[in-house]
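User: two proteins, same treatment. go.

Assistant:
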Amino acid sequence: MTTKSAGGPLLSQDEIGLLISSAGTAPSMHNTQPWRFEINGPVVDVILDEARGLPAADRSGRLILIGLGAATFNLRVAAASLGYETTFATEPDPDRPDIVTRVFLGSRRSPTPSLAALYGELRRRHTYRGPMMDLDVPLRVRDRMAAAARSEGGDLRWLDAAGRRQLGGILRVADDLDLHDEDRLTERQQWVGGERDVEGVPADALGPLPIGPATVRDLSAGFERPGRGVAAFEQQPLIGILTTPGDRPSEWLRAGMALQHALLAATSYDLAVSFLNQAVEYIHLRSRVQELVGQGARPQVILRVGYPARASAGTPRRSWDRTVIQGRPLEAPRAR
């Protein structure tokens, strides 16, 4: 099967499968995969699946939109690997607020090097929740990740030792709040732990429990998860805070694209990344994190980065064809 434009066949079923399955490898909070896709000729709409939101942990929908932005970036990478140039618009249709981004496929040429080079990292990247090795990440690699984020409208700022200490205090407060928030714990239990084949975070992807104090998020907090094991975690982790200049939904989407570009860059250097977003999920704590990066920047995501000390399991994904809404054929738009 192909989609058609006025000029004839555009996307084959194999191409559609490659594009949508690639988009679906993006990270999302608790791996809810809150996306659907509609294909209209050379246009792919990325659509918010509200049934996969997290109203207790993400009341504003900010982190869900960051996940959708990451899926959009993956779609652009996959299209580049097929030779398609892409442009995109955020919030493209006032009558369809569920469409968060619209990706336009332009002329097909040879693969676009700047994005196509990342295609091989899409399925290697996964969230790593184990200990890191006691190795410094070279400055050139940190600069590469920061440049990747900047190219999508974000800014990745690395914390110094004083900043890490301050963040540690904020994380401890956030972890304590998590343990006493019944709504969050109930919601998390729907998505975290156990055996999961298509969505959520299975028990074998949670990582070991830290032997002592550690800068890591334990998603199983509040629940028994037998058989996880324990490990000593690094004492001086590399921590970056991804920021945007503003804080509108369109910038949350941009933050997701910046995040995913930085994550794929990290993966290309065999780095592992996990998230410390409990510190930005609470409004009053997010304002404290903002003090670490300056008033001109809005913190969106907190990253723990390093070289993994052990192998780890990834999280499952839904079959791509379960996320597609077949749209009506449209004229191929002029690239813009």
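Protein 2:
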Amino acid sequence: MRQTQIGSSGFEAGSLGFGCWRFLGHDLSHAETLIETALDLGMTLIDTADIYGFGDAGFGAAEALLGEVLAADPARRGRMVLASKGGIIPPVPYNSSRANLIEACEASLTRLGVEQIDLYQIHRPDLLTPWEEVAGALDTLIADGKIGYAGVSNFTVAQTRALQAHLGARIVSTQPEFSALHLQPLEDGTLDWCQETGATPIVWSPLAGGRLGEGYSPQADDPGRLAELHETLDRLAALYDAQRSDVALAFLLKHPARPIVLLGTQRPERLGAGRNALAIPLTRQQWYSILETSRGEPMP
């Protein structure tokens, strides 16, 4: 699999990664199969968060299950770039105060059963904590060896730059929602900032919550452009003997910011199918046809 360096860090990871948002409710055997399949396919970035599991199996459940997988075979830890996130503590929406971030990170380390998290990201921007304080917590976690590198998730470019202004370490990643249906990172400067600084975009919900997958039919409350976007993706899929989801992922992977695209399927066979996107050489015209269909208007 094509490798992507994560910002200015020393880590490389496959251009497809495994997201643990739905990594819940499995027995250990199935959880091990998912992680082993991802690693064997070259999906070496394993992305989780302390909040994953809240409202279902409980706060921290996804991290705890991943910790069981690592404990069952400690050699797996050396095969992955381990990423997690903190800063959300229900019922308070966001808390990135120094004390909370350090406590949250230490709790994640315990659940995961590791000494260091390779990439630790602020999950959502806390509007009540000064950026200087957030930066101080991250610098402390790096200095103490509890995290290797710092990143952000769901931040605006202005928020990211404000944090970076106080941070001794470089921000090596940003994690936006991005898909052929959700184009905001293309339009709000996020992907331009990544190319400006060398940071890596780590994309979540690349199939728009399944709406760009094969089994989804547009509903009455879906954006009107979804059916047309399906038609464009399906037409291109036929040209490449591929599936709609393959083309939707190829659209993201073609961007020069070199994103890492997270797959969240809990079916091992679907992880393998996701690699088909890497073999689709979308032309410039084809890429722009997807963009125009999603926007509902031609390029100016």
